[in-house]
Amino acid sequence: MVVGVDAGATSTRCVVADLDGVVLGRGTAGGANRNSSGGEVSASLTAALGAALQALDRTKVSCGVLGAAGSAGAGRAAFRATATRAWADAGLAGELVTVTDLEVAYAAGTAEPDGVLLLAGTGALAALFAAGQLSRRSDGYGWLLGDEGSAVWIAVRALRAVLAALDGRGEPTSLLDAACHHFAVPDLLQLAGDHGGEPELLQSARDHSGVPDLQESRDHAGLRGEDVAQGLIAATFAVAPAALGGFAPAVSAAAERGDRVAGRICAAAADRLLHTFDSVGPPPGAAVVLAGSVLLSPGAVSRAVRAGLLARTAATPRTALDGAAGAAGLAIARITGAPVPPVVHARLTHAPDRG
């Protein structure tokens, strides 16, 4: 048997399979990115491995490939040490291989050795593969320094827009209500009730699209947007940076409903992702694999990126739905010494057999 692990910023997934690509076990646990997940990375890896292997004979595991975000460069040695400890704690003695999340995501989308991975989930980047090896990458520098177009990037810009709307620097946006709901912060209507105001006046101040006129709301209820702003600040700083990405779907939904602010944020995210794709210099005819929640979920960003890729490549991109299965495919290839056959890849990843 082989083991594949995809340790992401918000979740860790594990797949156990045989050499024919038949999945025998699955396990999940919390995030395992040392830069943005918080908590103990080794504990997440051990939990995911244990869940996937609980009904299986662990002595039959010949090889495992563990991939993780944040495990390149300076993080490589640290992740290797952490993975080795988790591997031993899970009672495994087979060969252990550690790679980045890029290899496993690309392998989840295709068995072809040449192509480009465009990823936008908690983080965002593009990676060029040649002869099965990562040859070039662009972005993927983490929530603080990069990851342009990622879920966290979208959420942070939406929250900035909400705060700007509250203090008068920006235009009104329905993202205010969405943010208060998502982060469980009392909004202006709730605060009006708490302070003896008249919520119906606040409701009447909303324009035809449901966006509140904040200044009129404050005038009627005697409230300051600072109350809501400080609540949002406290709530968002209380969670790990990776968790902020959970607000991105609400931003996409607001854009779909016609919110101008949300629409601009989603359009900017798509532009950044396409620019990142262009930056790795994709060769003509190369396979393109999409990964991450932002690109694999319906919405304004995914739609714009797919249209941009189609215009650039004249081909429909493939999708990486299961990074852990991609890691298991890499483990199979390591044992057999040959690329994973298309039929085995399709069985392993539940994707159409492109062979």
UniProtKB/TrEMBL annotation:
SUPFAM superfamilies: Actin-like ATPase domain (SSF53067). It comes from the Bacteria. It comes from Actinoplanes palleronii. Keywords: Kinase, Transferase. One of its GO terms (molecular function) is kinase activity. This is N-acetylglucosamine kinase. InterPro entries: ATPase_BadF, ATPase_NBD, Euk-type_GlcNAc_Kinase. The keyword Ligase does not apply. Residues 3-330 form the ATPase BadF/BadG/BcrA/BcrD type domain.
